[in-house]
Amino acid sequence: MNAKRETIIISLGGSLVAPNEIDIGFLKSFRHVLSRWLCHRGSSTKSGQKYRFFITVGGGKICRIYQKALLEFGAKSNDRDWMGISVTKLNAEIVKQMFAGSAYPKLIDPVKKIKTNKDIVISGGYKPGASSDYVSVLMAKIYGVKTIVNLTNIDYVYDKNPNKFSDTKPLKEIDWKSFERIVGDKWSPGTSMPFDPRASKLASKLKLKVIILNGKKLERLEKFLNNKPFIGTIIG
């Protein structure tokens, strides 16, 4: 039986890669999960499903620390964005090295299509005004991919900000129009949201499906890849 091959884009939150320092334990677990599904590796699943993964890597807390410091010295939004992009690329280099042999050897420009048979392709930030979520949507557009998995540090999207309200409700599924009402339409450097407003608007236009999963609980990613019920939110 020949394995089916599907491309999935993963928006990997920087808060998972480097919450305070580089989380080696998480990265090793993440590599283990993805490696089981690559085309050149054996799979223990009955479906025979195989994947390619295009991974965009975020900046996380370290990124916000640097951006806050720049703001103290009067840096404009554009300058803070460039700082964030630099941090995402540092994080992305770690992830790329982790998949050495399976990964495309360079961080890619998300708007320039490449030809490769590699199972792992990785990008950091792109340009000012664009979060790693937006980069993942750009990649989906360029490569004709319809599913993005957003690995973050929350279990669900909620109907209201859980940091501000105590009566929030978790949402297992939500359409793009309703989601955009929750996150609004503005994004600024260092903003932390389930999926950023600008990325959401483009994802809605492209009719993409975005899966919000808690990356700290990678068994949920396993269940999603194995087409089993999982804890998380489906947007779209």
Provide the domain count: 1
Please give the CATH architecture. 3-Layer(aba) Sandwich
CATH homologous superfamily grouping: Acetylglutamate kinase-like
Task: Indicate the low-confidence ranges by residue numbers.
Answer: 42-46
Assign the CATH topology: Carbamate kinase
Structural class estimated from helices and strands: alpha/beta
Helix content: 25-40%
- Count of DSSP-assigned helices: 8
Question: Per the principal axes of the C-alpha atoms, what is the gross shape?
Answer: globular
What is the top-level CATH class?
Alpha Beta
Our Rg estimate from Cα atoms comes to 17 Å
Number of strands: 9
- Spatial strand order of the main sheet: 3-2-1-4-8-9-7
Query: Roughly what is the average pLDDT, rounded to an integer?
Result: 87
DSSP strand content: 15-25%
Main sheet record: 7 strands, mixed
Distance between the termini: 32 Å
- Sketch the topology as an H/E string, one letter per element: EHHEHHEHEEEEHHEHE
Structure description:
By secondary structure, the protein is α/β, with parallel strands linked by helices. It contains 8 helices and 9 strands. The strands form 2 sheets. The chain has a 7-stranded mixed β-sheet with strand order 3-2-1-4-8-9-7, sandwiched between helices. The chain has one domain: Carbamate kinase. The longest helix is centred in the middle third of the chain and has 22 residues.
Throw out a few tags for this protein:
37% helix, Carbamate kinase, 8 helices, two-stranded antiparallel sheet, alpha/beta, 236 residues
Short description:
The chain has 236 residues and is an alpha/beta fold. It has helices spanning 14-17, 24-35, 60-72, 77-98, 132-143, 176-183, 197-205, 219-225; strands at 4-12, 49-57, 120-123, 147-152, 157-158, 170-171, 173-174, 209-214, 233-235.
